[in-house]
Amino acid sequence: MKCGTPFLLFLLTACAQIREPLGGEKDVSPPTLLSAEPANGSVWFAADRIVLHFNERVKLDHLRERLLISPPLDKQPEVQVVGGTDVVLQLKAPLLPNTTYTFNIGETVVDLTEGNAAAGLSYVVSTGDVLDSLLISGVVVDAFNTKPEDGVLVVLHSDTDSTGFTTGRPGYFTRTDKDGGFTLRNLRSGSYQLHALKDQNANFRYDLPNERVAFLDDRVISGDSAFHELRMFLGEAPVQQVIEALVQPDRGWRLVLARSSDTIQLRQLDRVGGSLSWALEWNETRDTVLFWPSDTTLLADQRFVVSDSSGTLDTLTYRVQRKMPFYLDVKAASSAVDGQRVLVSARPVRSINRERVEMRIDSSLVDCALAIDPNKGRQVLVSAIFPDDKRAVLTLLPGALEDIYGGRNDTLRLALGNKSALQTGDLKIRLSRDTGFELAGPFILQVLNAQGGVFLIERFSAFPFASDRPGVVSGSYTVKLIEDLNGDGYWSTGSLKDQRQPERVFRQQGEVQVRAGWEVGVDWKVSAH
What we know:
The chain is mainly beta. The protein folds into five domains: 33-126, Immunoglobulin-like, CATH 2.60.40; 134-232, Immunoglobulins (Immunoglobulin-like); 242-318; 330-416, Immunoglobulin-like, CATH 2.60.40; 424-526, Sandwich (Immunoglobulin-like), CATH 2.60.40. It is built from three helices and 42 strands. Strands 11, 12, 14, 15 and 16 form a five-stranded antiparallel sheet that branches. Strands 36, 37, 39, 40 and 41 form a five-stranded antiparallel sheet that branches. The protein has a four-stranded antiparallel sheet with strand order 1-2-6-5, with no helix packed on it. It is elongated, with a radius of gyration of 32 Å.
């Protein structure tokens, strides 16, 4: 019995241990404002201290970004939690007379346990005898992709203040919600300029070239019933400059420019002897260019002057960061050019050894011809007869393609030819314009795949317009329309200085589902909303 006593005591002790109770519902309720000193909605406000009493213990979260006081104060108040449940705002300067102030504090006050924010909570007072109550509301969207802008500033200035948005402070402001919506509340009666701003330096003004902006052409009246849409864009840089330069592993030198360009040159500073030339490969908007050197020998760490028609832009160093891949990589593009299939190589192609190329449809060898695209050195065009219901495989044996640096491909097998009718459908798009809705044109029609890549581009000058595309791989697509007012063939941004809006972009609501073996019709009457 004595030998068993310690075990019994251990068992009884273990059974008697006190543990934290499990289960229970998670607290999802935000803090509630019980009262305030002075009271919320007070007039003739003259205090220098505001006390907000909450129903539970709270803390402050991201105070600098989330505490919005409209109109803005010259000096931010000192804010702290006192006694666990009270938030105290100590004002550092007198408020303006006869002015209604809104303290949007809810986003920064969260409960102590779960971090639930008192979202939407505002404290409003007036230093005069009237509490202003007019509204202006609307939505802010990205001008190019039409997606809502979350958390950007929306600001109001007097319609007589021509420089306030770039040099001063707004009369009223708020931030957009996750759906891009905004409501400016407690406004005084009047006419205003309405802007949206991605404020990079938190000074409430548009003064940096990398700040995105939106504006309305017309003035807004406080209390109107209109729902205002602001389209946000990044303006074109005032001067041309190189904003990024990177030597890619395949030795192309990628330069990203601040604005589109018609021409650009490189002038060598360090190179002695030998011959060096560059082949240029521009993107569609001509603000990014790949420079392909004709010779990479002793090129690393050499300096070059970059210039365009306006003069010298920069002096850059060709700096190699990674070893060039040994084999030349080649992929089959999803699109076709005039019935020819397209191969895209990692480096510009210099020659093709046709004896190292073979193509089979099913198991039978067929004739094909390969040619380097004279306008795009990294593209190889494949000509052959591609039956609709057959599978074509192009085999590139080692050395079939040789790039400008002497690199060659390893064995590659690339699927070409038309997709089987069991995998594709037909897409037919019919565009018209809603009655009374003005669209100037010309226009760019784009069809985007599920990854956001551009699957189809067509340009046309007037409505109505029809586009028929057979053999579309089954999947989800989005139809998009650009009003190409300047006729340059791509979307153009706006300019606040010139009061020019970005070109309008329209996106059909919902996705288009292309099903294998089906004909899918899209009838889109383009309208403002």
